[in-house]
Amino acid sequence: MSEQSKHTALYTQHEAHGASFTDFGGWQMPLKYRSELEEHHTVRKAAGLFDLSHMGEVLVSGPQAAEFLNYALVSNLAVLAVGKAKYSLICNEAGGVIDDLITYRLTGDSFLVVPNASNAPVVAEELRLRAKGFDVAVEDQSDTTALVAVQGPTAEAVLLDLARPEDAAAIRDLKYYAVVELELAGLPVLLARTGYTGEDGFEIFLGGNVAVRLWNAALEAGGKHGLLPCGLAARDSLRLEAGMPLYGHELGLDTTPFEAGLGPVVSTKKPDDFVGRSVLEPLKAVEPARRLVGLRAVGRRSARAGYDVVVDGAAVGTVTSGLPSPTLGYPVALAYVDAAYAAVGTEVQVDLRGRPEPFTVIPTPFYKRRPAGSPQ
Question: What UniProt keywords apply to this chain's record, in alphabetical order (predicted)?
Answer without folding.
Answer: Aminotransferase, Transferase
